[in-house]
Amino acid sequence: xxxxxxxxxxxxxxxxxxxxxxxxxxxxxxxxxxxxxxxxxxxxxxxxxxxxxxxxxxxxxxxxxxxxxxxxxxxxxxxxxxxxxxxxxxxxxxxxxxxxxxxxxxxxxxxxxxxxxxxxxxxxxxxxxxxxxxxxxxxxxxxxxxxxxxxxxxxxxxxxxxxxxxxxxxxxxxxxxxxxxxxxxxxxxxxxxxxxxxxxxxxxxxxxxxxxxxxxxxxxxxxxxxxxxxxxxxxxxxxxxxxxxxxxxxxxxxxxxxxxxxxxxxxxxxxxxxxxxxxxxxxxxxxxxxxxxxxxxxxxxxxxxxxxxxxxxxxxxxxxxxxxxxxxxxxxxxxxxxxx
Length: 340
Ligand code: SAM
Ligand code: DTB
Ligand code: SF4
Known about the structure:
Elements: H1 5-10, H2 23-31, H3 34-48, E1 53-63, H4 92-105, E2 109-114, H5 121-135, E3 140-144, H6 150-159, E4 163-165, H7 172-175, H8 184-196, E5 200-202, E6 205-207, H9 213-224, E7 232-237, H10 254-267, E8 272-275, H11 284-292, E9 297-299, H12 312-322, E10 325-326
Parallel strand pairs: 1-2, 1-9, 1-10, 2-3, 3-4, 4-5, 6-7, 7-8, 8-9
Helix pairs in contact: 2-9, 3-10, 4-5, 5-6, 6-8, 9-10, 10-11
Bound molecules: S-adenosylmethionine, 6-(5-methyl-2-OXO-imidazolidin-4-yl)-hexanoic acid (DTB) and iron/sulfur cluster.
6-(5-methyl-2-OXO-imidazolidin-4-yl)-hexanoic acid binds near residues 113, 165, 236, 239 and 277.
């Protein structure tokens, strides 16, 4: 049987991509017996992706700390006393060296993060230069710099930026408990500017911010009901950092984390879902369940922005144990996960 758009829409295991999910429908997914939820998520996953291929990104904090925003989870906020030392924008040579290292270790996308509320136009010019350099190494490029205007998004797009990361973080109703210095609507506006500039959108959230299952459902519903699903959906588990208001937040039940991944996969069947922050200290088993639930992207490399990520040798071993292999990006050549 030939699978085309029409058969996809009529076959139960390959449902059409929807943008009209109700909260009750999403909550019903969260309430499914675990085995039923995972079966459904894995079925959707296999209809759209190679179930054993995982997209590999490496992060670099190009401008660290001293951020004026008050995001309660973030070690880089100037509102909290953490061990993060503020630093200026990194020089191009140093960024290029890190990007080469990431590429040689097997990453296919390089994500540059900056602790800004919103960059000045001069900041955007500097980052545009970095994007051009990183792109010239044959890597996909991603940046997360805070709120962007449409003109700034276009400037970055013209420099060769492939993805822009800007998370919703949590539900609109829980948001006020976490951040007071910018609104949920401003986050949605930045996403819209990125989309209008023609870049791929990377947009997801964090679990472990004291939210309830309704908030998780509402976050995923908001993402799924956008006019276009984000191409990349990072699901972060809070990295609890001393000095932040959420340093002692309750940890997320690993099976609940897996459930959220599965629901994201079902709601956004064609999006790449990233098992994002929070893998450090997570054993192989919950990670394997996340991949079974439809996660097909990770951050690779020993650091996220300011906090640790699993050692590269541990991730290579995990890939070997699970028979996973790097996903080949459309525009760049496949690279094996190799030693640094
Ligand atoms: N300043 C920019 C912004 O907020 O959009 C870009 C960098 S910011 C660190 C990017 C994202 O990292 C945040 O939106 C949040 O989802 C995630 N993040 C920050 N601190 C985290 C933590 N402690 N645990 C998990 N995710 C975190
Ligand atoms: C995303 O969703 N997670 C990444 C990336 N986008 C920029 C950031 C995780 C940060 C974890 C805390 C830190 O290392 O500072
Ligand atoms: Fe600043 Fe981004 Fe951290 Fe919020 S998440 S404090 S905007 S660096």
